[in-house]
């Protein structure tokens, strides 16, 4: 079995993951990324035999990886069906968005208090890049990636490793919901405008205002995602 001192290559579909880590961690990372990139879709069965063939690893390694992803909330074990990619229920989605609104607005508040002027400029640039991508009408993965860059700037400027660790798991669990919220009519344009107003508050160094506006931004996204999820759970998950 590879050790952390050796680089291993795992192929998953068209993705190639090159990292120096124990095999179990490589499999977890490869499967996690496949879920976050929607190469494994919400509700899709994760058949052990197929994963073993795809990854070229043992059944034990696959099972350990699936257990870890289950603990992270990305995989659900369904009786008579086995492991599937998780799809939050409306109730779970509401809770996740409430937690996001609380934690991420706190991160924005810390950003305003601690970020340098260059980080504020980076935030503005990241928001404008997101606006450009929205206009380009690209696929959802590119939209999510560009939106993630905004949050990366906020995390960096907030300077809180503890909050970064906590919010990371929540972000992963709501990724399918974020994709769903963006699919709402007019939601992307509204999101751009909301983010621009937040940046204005950040420039003014008004921490309370920026945090409040960001919480409203999350709640608007939640409303869009929940409307789709409640109207058609299967379509909203896809």
How would you describe this protein?
With 238 residues, the protein is mainly alpha-helical. It folds into two domains: 7-85, Winged helix-like DNA-binding domain superfamily/Winged helix DNA-binding domain (Arc Repressor Mutant, subunit A, Orthogonal Bundle), CATH 1.10.10; 90-237, Four Helix Bundle (Hemerythrin (Met), subunit A) (Up-down Bundle). Helices cover 70% and strands 8% of the residues. It has helices at residues 23-36, 48-55, 59-71, 90-114, 117-136, 140-158, 161-173, 175-182, 187-203, 207-231, 233-237; strands at residues 7-12, 15-20, 75-78, 82-85. The strands form two sheets. Strands 1-2 form a two-stranded antiparallel sheet. Helix 4 (90-114) packs antiparallel against helix 7, helix 8 packs across helix 10 and helix 9 (187-203) packs antiparallel against helix 10. It starts with 6 loop residues before the first strand and ends with a helix.
Strand-helix topology:
Layout (H helix, E strand, L loop, with lengths): L6 E6 L2 E6 L2 H14 L11 H8 L3 H13 L3 E4 L3 E4 L4 H25 L2 H20 L3 H19 L2 H13 L1 H8 L4 H17 L3 H25 L1 H5 L1
Antiparallel strand pairs: 1-2, 3-4
Helix pairs in contact: 1-3, 4-6, 4-7, 4-10, 5-6, 5-9, 8-10, 9-10
CATH class of the largest domain: Mainly Alpha
Major β-sheet profile: 2 strands, antiparallel
Second rung of CATH, namely the architecture of the largest domain: Up-down Bundle
CATH superfamily of the largest domain: GntR ligand-binding domain-like
Uncertain regions: pLDDT < 50 for 5+ in a row? 1-9, 13-20, 233-238
Total helical elements: 11
The chain-level mean pLDDT equals: 86
Strand order of the largest sheet: 1-2
Strand content: 5-15%
Instruction: Give me the CATH fold name of the largest domain.
Output: Four Helix Bundle (Hemerythrin (Met), subunit A)
* Shape estimate: globular
Q: What are the secondary-structure elements, in order, as H or E?
A: EEHHHEEHHHHHHHH
Estimated radius of gyration: 19 Å
First-residue to last-residue Cα separation = 36 Å
Q: Which class best fits the helix and strand makeup?
A: mainly alpha
* Total number of strands: 4
Count structural domains. Answer: 2
């Amino acid at each position: 079995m590879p050790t952390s001192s050796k680089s291993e290559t795992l192929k998953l579909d068209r993705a190639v993951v090159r990292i120096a880590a124990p095999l179990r961690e490589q499999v977890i990372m490869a499967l996690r990324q496949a879920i976050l990139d929607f190469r494994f879709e919400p509700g899709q069965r994760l058949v052990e035999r197929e994963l073993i063939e795809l990854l070229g690893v043992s059944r034990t390694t696959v099972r350990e990886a699936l257990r870890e992803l289950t603990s992270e909330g990305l995989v659900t074990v369904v009786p008579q069906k086995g492991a599937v990619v998780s799809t939050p229920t409306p109730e779970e989605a509401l809770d996740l968005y409430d937690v996001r609104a609380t934690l991420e607005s706190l991160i924005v508040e810390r950003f305003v208090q601690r970020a340098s002027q260059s980080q504020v400029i980076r935030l503005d640039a990241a928001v404008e890049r997101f606006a450009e991508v929205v206009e380009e009408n690209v696929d959802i993965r590119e939209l999510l990636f560009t939106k993630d860059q905004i949050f990366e700037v906020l995390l960096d400027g907030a300077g809180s490793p503890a909050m970064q660790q906590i919010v990371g798991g929540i972000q992963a669990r709501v990724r399918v919901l974020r994709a769903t919220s963006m699919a709402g009519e007019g939601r992307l344009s509204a999101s751009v405008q909301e983010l621009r107003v937040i940046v204005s508050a950040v420039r003014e160094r008004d921490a309370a205002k920026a945090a409040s506006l960001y919480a409203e931004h999350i709640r608007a996204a939640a409303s869009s995602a929940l409307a789709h999820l409640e109207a058609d759970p299967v379509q909203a998950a896809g």
